[in-house]
Amino acid sequence: MASRTTTTAAAAGRLTWRILSPFTLHAPCSVLAVNTRQCSSKLATQQDKKPKRSALRPAPSTTHDWIGPPNPLSNLRPIVYRVAENESELEKRLRHLRQETEDWNHEFWTKQNISFSKEKEAFIISQLKAKGLTLRDEEGRRRSLNSEEMAVFYKSFLDTNRIRHANYNKEWYRRNFTITLLMAQVTLKNMWRTVTEKHNKTNSTPDKK
To answer: What integer pLDDT is reported at residue 190 of this predicted model?
Structure first.
C-alpha cells in the first residue's frame, strides 16, 4: 500500500462517479479503475465466497492513511485510516465510521459485481443456446453477443436492481452527511483547542518590566 495525506475527496469522487454514471460502468470489468483490469476467471472461482479484505493490511499510521490497489472484485481501493496521536473520542468515532463505510462499500460492490457477472454469463449462454450455438466455436474461441443483444440484459439487470441501487444511494448519502458533520465537529474542536492553548500560553508569559 502507498501512503497518502488524510482526505476523503478522492474516494468520495470515485464513489459519486459510480453512483451517477451509466449502469454498465458497474460491471466487473470496470473502466472506473485507474488501471484497466481484464475480466478473469477469478470472479467465477470466488463468486460463492464471502467478500474479504486482504489480511496483509499495514498497521495504521499516526500521520497518514494507507491506500492499496483496486480490489479485483469490488474495484475499490482498500483504505486504512490513520490513528492520530492522543485521538479524542470524537476523532475515534469519525475514524470508525469512515472505516466501516469503506468496508460496507466493498461488500456491496463485490456482491453486485459477482451477481452481474453470473447473470451476464447465464444470459449469453441462454441466447446462444436459443440460436443452436455452443459457448465456443469449432476452434475453441468464445462466442459473444452483439451490443444490441447485450443491451437487453443490461436493461433487465438495471430494472431488477433499481430498488437495491436506490437504497444504496440513500445509505451512501446518509453516511457521507454524517461523516461530513463529524469532520466539521473535529475541525472546530481542534481549532478551539489551538486558540485556547495559545491564549493560555500568552496569559502565562510574565510581563517584561
So the answer is: 87
Q: CA-to-CA distance for 177 and 127, rounded, in angstroms?
A: 44
Would you call 122 helix, strand, or coil by DSSP? helix
CA–CA dist 203, 206 (Å, integer): 8
Angle at 140 between CA 138 and CA 145, to 5 degrees: 90
The answer, yes or no, to whether residue 45 has pLDDT greater than 50, is no
Residue, of 166 and 60, whose pLDDT is higher: 166
Q: Could you report the per-residue pLDDT of 115-165, keeping only the tens digit for each?
A: 999 999 999 999 999 999 999 988 899 999 999 999 999 999 999 999 999
Contact between 73 and 51 under an 8 Å Cβ cutoff? The reply is yes
Set of cell numbers at residue 194: 489551538
Question: How far is Cα 69 from Cα 199, in angstroms, rounded to an integer?
Answer: 45
Q: Is pLDDT at 27 greater than 70 in this prediction?
A: no
Q: Is 128 exposed, middle or buried (0-12, 13-18, 19+ CB in 10 A)?
A: middle
Q: Measured between alpha carbons, how far is residue 125 from residues 15, 24, 42, 171, 179 in Å?
A: 32, 19, 19, 35, 44
Q: What are the backbone dihedrals phi and psi of residue 74, each rounded to the nearest 5 degrees, phi first? A: -90, -20
